[in-house]
Amino acid sequence: MKILKKFIIISLIGLETLYSQTITLKTAINKTLLNHPDIKAFMLRIQQSEQNYNAVYTSYLPQLDLLATYNPTKTYTIQNSGVFHTTQESGWSLGVTLHQKVWDFGTTSSIVQSSKVDVDIAKESLAEAKALLIFKVKSLYKLLIIQREAIKVREKDLEAKKAYLAQAKALFEQGLKTKADVNRFLSAVYAAEDALSFTKASFKKVKVSLSLYMGMEIDDSVKLQNSILKKKLKINKNLEYKVVENNNKIKIDRLNIQKNQLIYKSAKNSHFGSIDLVASYYKYDALNNYNLSSVGISYSVPIYTSGKLTALEQKARIGKIIAQKEKDSDILALKEEYHSLLIDIEHYNQTIKTKKAQLSSAKSTQEELNARYKEGLATYLDILDNIAIVLNAKLEILEAYYSRSIAFDRIEYLKGKL
Fold first, then answer.
1. Helix axes 179-214, 107-173, angle to 10 degrees
2. Are 256 and 322 contacting, i.e. CB atoms less than 8 angstroms apart?
3. Of the candidates 144, 65, 56, which has an alpha carbon nearest to the alpha carbon of residue 108?
4. Quick one: pLDDT at residue 3?
């Protein structure tokens, strides 16, 4: 019976392990990109800019207008033998007008091209939104890994302090230690329990945030890719060039410069007017029935507009200069952040190396301190100091791995990598 019970328990544990939730980083990213409203909004903006391009493009195409009028009564003046007579009759007219732009010195074509650039800007904005969202998901996913590992570290710390408390109580009963030893270790246990509770709460907060991003529930026992924390980014001399060249914001800046150049060209050429083909046909029924048709070319040029066209041209010229300066500013900020990240990565590498050495040293002295404490050659303060060193070293190593990994991810984001 006991063997059967043991077999059932092992089987249940095996099934639980088999069917436990597993979420890879790629899955978390894909689900977030599929469900996040920001991505859907940017996709709609692409469609919106495409429709705007279609609307502007119609300026190239013929425009056909239908005009109809009807007058139930209208007074007409008729001359007969030098005498004017008036009469009131009903009348109507029906006609169509065709208008086709022939040439306007690039005014329309520049506007059409600028609206096409707007479509490209919308696409690059979507790529930027995706890259930023991927970076956020990576941060949350890796923070979830770190918080879980921190819980394990805190649990071991609490377990060790409870063991020291039990030992202090036993030594106190034997008259080998004072009540102060017991109380100090008891206080350490309470502090460790509070710290563990805080870490568990932090884990749950991160889990909730990632769940909302992904649009699905995440189990507390979810399996994660812990190995991704130790992956490194290859850093070489060409990386800075790739960051500046491929950064989504810089690409948008370049497109904005191109757009403003086209708008400036359109505003400048608008001074030269427009050549248009005009054709019309009308049928009139008012006293007499007759048809009227015309086909011709018209040229209109603005002579005096109270300075409106000049102001629009100067506005467009300034917009072009602003777009260039914004690109220069963004490149400067991008390079500054990039080099700052490289310095941080170097610092985190040194922290990992130093804290690992500190942890190894603290662990090697732990057994010796325990023996010295029992013999009265070390105090509870020595024990707690060593425990604190071990705890802090473990937590700081985790934090350094996380911060270094996020710095790598940030460079990937700056590089516009999806």
1. 160
2. no
3. 56
4. 53
CA-to-CA separations, 87 to 61, 92, 284, in angstroms, rounded = 44, 16, 17
Record the tokens describing residue 163, joined without a space.
């063991």
pLDDT band for position 10 (cuts 50, 70, 90): very low
Integer Cα distance of 167 and 174 in angstroms: 11
CB atoms within 10 A of CB 19: 8
Structural tokens at position 13: 């544990």
> How would you list the strands of the sheet with 274-286, edge to edge?
63-80, 83-103, 274-286, 288-300
Position with higher pLDDT, 414 vs 89: 414
Rounded mean pLDDT, 335-359: 95
